[in-house]
């Protein structure tokens, strides 16, 4: 596979060290260094203003599997030219190129204090702290909820959805009538008529679509039509195990208008066609991160849509390459799965899925440090002579395919599918512990059309949302053991940050700053990093200058674990426990934003400096420890383990002047 992945590892003085992975197909590579200006071509982003492009380097020996370390002279980077991109090639002539995302390179910084002395050596002085560009983006609030997220996406492809449904309705009605009975055909016709009256007046505008969908009359029509499909008669036998009667209510009345909330359980069964029942149950009972929720629903909808000719193409026609909100749909449409016509009478299932409860939610857990196997069960009305099973691992937020295995299968009948469908350590090596992934199984086979005699590819699929765990997984935060202010600039030097320094241009001048300061946990970092200060000053009034400032600090779990030993006598964390704190749920709990306004006053020739340091809470963190797992790598038993970890609870702003 052709890859181009580059990761920053360390500043080593005269050189900066990176790890690269170019896969096993490409054996040559090069890199370029530039500033923050970029351009996009064919959906790929490149540096526009490069000041250095390396010669083509290679070939890498086959035994490296495309992985190696690269050391670049540090003087090739500065505060402007600090962006790096990797290219890989099949040969020295540049054939078969692959391109990495552009990454910012941390630049070392040693702020010079004015009135605070750091001259006394500190025990923490051996912790290097770098400065990196401000790149933190606040994720959209979970309070936006499922409805707004769905409407935002659907609104951008609304005309495609209408066109797709209307185009396939004449075909879908007789097909579904034959499979599910006459009620299904009536429901499809009703959906088409409803769309004709519902969406033309909205122009695809998300707010107008949302208003239409919140209309009680519209909701009643939709639920009535869906109920006709749910109550249709001839569901495949193994699908009868998919019962939605016991599902917990959809989470969060605060997230949805009451009239929408009350109808959500009725809508959930639609996802059961292409998602495992346990994943549908997780969606309906939550809680889930919004991006995972929307990505999983997008996968289920796209897979179900393969049953209708023209549906996928109608959606694809509406996708715009530059729109980041449509990344899951774009990746779902352009994935590695072969095109096929979905057969609703053939159902594929993961066998033996057993959830565990962590973080207040039901999850399917598998070990990431063992080979994991997914037994499959098939329900088919007639034998399948020969086919192919593809096992794929997808990022549930973006639907990007991260790993894939392909298996030939023969003589398939209803019952267990013979074969070992496994993800080995080679595939799991690139995945992160304690993160969620969509495991997708796709069965395809060829058949001759009864009408034309031509060969066509048929298929079916299923997907289950799993969490891959090491020895521990984050469960919850509990109380605060104590709060420690890191207020000694000598003792806690790596946690002090000079965020601004300015001069007074005239006597009696006032400077007011509206400040935002972020504390962000970044598991990939081995050292803390100060974010570059972003500031905008309004210079129209020279006597009273005002400005907005934002900056922050990226904190390393390893450095915080060392801080734990410095500020308390609590037990140190081992590597497995630190890895459990790298998951999205813990990072989201960790991230903090402090906001304040500061004012300085001085005379011509004076200067002022603004510093920030944190107060940290020593928090009790409950992890789940894996006690038992089976031969397939499925986690069977967990137990609680409490550890302690420092987390910022307040940012203290200190102004100095001279």
- Taken together, the total number of domains comes to 3
**Global Rg:** 28 Å
User: Rough shape?
Assistant: globular
Helix content: 10-25%
- Average pLDDT reading: 77
Total helix count? 15
Give the end-to-end Cα distance, rounded to a whole number of Å.
60 Å
Give me the count of strands: 33
Unreliably modeled segments: 109-121, 139-151, 175-180, 226-267
Largest sheet: 7 strands, mixed
**Which structural class best describes the helix and strand composition?**
alpha+beta
Beta-sheet strand percentage?
35-45%
Describe this structure in words.
It is a single chain. This protein is α+β, with helices and mostly antiparallel strands. It has three domains: 2-105, Interleukin-17 receptor A/B, fibronectin-III-like domain 2 (Immunoglobulin-like, Sandwich), CATH 2.60.40.2150; 142-469, no CATH class; 477-657, no CATH class. 23% of the residues lie in helices and 38% in strands. The strands form eight sheets. Strands 11, 12, 27, 28, 29, 30 and 31 form a seven-stranded mixed sheet that branches. Helix 1 packs across helix 4 (206-213), helix 2 (158-180) runs antiparallel to helix 3 and helix 3 runs antiparallel to helix 5 (216-230). It is globular, with a radius of gyration of 28 Å. Mean pLDDT is 77; it is low at 109-121, 139-151, 175-180 and 226-267.
